[in-house]
Design a protein that fits this description.
The chain is of the alpha+beta class. The chain has 10 helices and 13 strands. It is globular.
């Protein structure tokens, strides 16, 4: 099994209330100056503009988001243009370094103790990948195994933890880290705005979360046997306790590939999003979770803690209905959404951090992490404290 030993979030310096973001996005998308004057040659255009601005405000008001972080000041987004991906590489590397340094400090391990680094991100492209760029900055070993993940989208945080678990099952004396870093604000809509763009502009925020874990047979650092002159630092007492990963399951729901994703256009990544997403979750998630739990002699009632990707209020409502959960079961997911928005792959890890810090589940409590993303895909992890 896999023992999680640290989780740490890092956020950009800029944080805005939702109302400020609404105004900034309206200006960026060119729907901020709408006249109420009827008639005239451009009366239809004005009426359409008023409807678009009203839709923007309604979507932002119903998103369940209070504040979000952005990697740049709002005034800078209009001038990003073709340089957006270059800025992504620079800023994602720096933010990811902060998150991973924080997780390592909490874990009591050194960067050189890591045998595997998985990095997930879907909001920019880097070649060499972010993990390679982080190696000299953090002091990772030259022989560290690396796995950059792109294309899984929002499900990648949970999927990354599942693949980390797979690795540690085979290498139980090793230590591994997962880093999810997303700069969603780089895809704010600037032209040819669609309803999907406006929905995304209401939900997504920037941030990074790193997780460090060891195999259950790990002793000190993974390389202390090969370097006896270097004594491992004592690991700090973990209060509250951190969970182990017991088992995982991956599932892709057929005929739902058009519900969520990216398309790459001349102005960068643009969201693909349909109302079908919540419908797929409500229709398929219940059977996925109950079937997975049954394999381990458990039912939904045995799960004391739920960590569900906050795709938005409708997605969380759909998950709650599919699993017949009580009203407060997804409170941590809704709180993460309110505080920092949907951070794509980083969100489930942020919710795990909130759960560890605030709820402190009792020893023996089972937890379920649910990642959701393009495909439509679900990644399920059974946890136990």
């Amino acid at each position: 099994m896999t023992q999680i030993v640290a989780v740490h979030s890092a956020f950009p310096a800029y944080r805005y209330p939702q109302a400020d973001l609404t105004r900034a996005i309206a200006s960026l998308a060119g729907i901020d100056a709408v006249s109420d004057e009827p008639g005239g040659a451009d009366g239809a255009g004005r009426a359409g503009g008023r409807k678009l601005r009203a839709l923007l405000e309604r979507l932002h008001g119903n998103a369940g988001v209070d504040t979000r972080h952005t990697v740049f000041p709002l005034a800078d987004y209009g001038a990003l243009g073709p340089a957006a991906n270059d800025r992504y590489i620079e800023e994602a590397t720096a933010l990811g370094e902060r998150a991973l340094r924080g997780a390592l400090a909490k874990s009591g391990l050194d960067a050189a103790d890591l045998d595997l680094l998985i990095v997930t991100s879907v909001t920019g492209v880097a070649v060499p990948s972010l993990d390679a760029l982080l190696m000299p900055r953090l002091g990772l070993r030259a022989d560290v195994k690396r796995l950059p993940v792109f294309g899984l989208g929002c499900v990648a945080g949970a999927a990354g933890l599942a693949r980390l678990h797979d690795y540690l099952l085979g290498w139980p004396r090793h230590a591994a880290a997962l880093l999810a870093v997303e700069l969603c604000s780089l895809s704010l809509p600037r032209s040819s705005v669609t309803t999907a763009d406006l929905v995304a502009s209401a939900l997504f925020g920037d941030g990074a979360v790193a997780l460090v874990a060891t195999g259950t047979r790990a002793r000190g650092g993974s390389r202390t046997r090969a370097r006896p002159e270097r004594r491992p630092r004592p690991r700090p007492a973990i209060e509250p306790p951190l969970p182990r990963v017991i088992a995982t399951r991956s599932e892709v729901y057929p005929d739902s590939g058009g519900a969520l994703g990216w398309r790459l256009g001349p102005d960068g990544f643009r969201i693909v999003l349909t109302a079908e997403l919540a419908e797929v979750v409500q229709r398929r998630l219940g059977a996925s979770v109950t079937g997975f739990l049954a394999e381990h002699g458990l039912t939904v009632d045995d799960i004391g803690t739920w960590i569900c990707h906050p795709g938005g209020p409708k997605v969380l409502d759909a998950a709650q209905r599919a699993l017949k959960l009580p009203a407060d079961a997804l409170a941590s997911s809704r709180r993460s959404l309110a505080q920092v928005g949907n951070m794509s792959s980083a969100s489930v890890l942020h919710i795990l951090e909130l759960t560890i810090a605030d709820n402190a589940p009792a020893a023996g409590t089972f937890g379920m992490m649910i990642g959701l993303g393009p495909g439509v895909s679900a990644e399920l992890l059974l946890l136990r404290w």
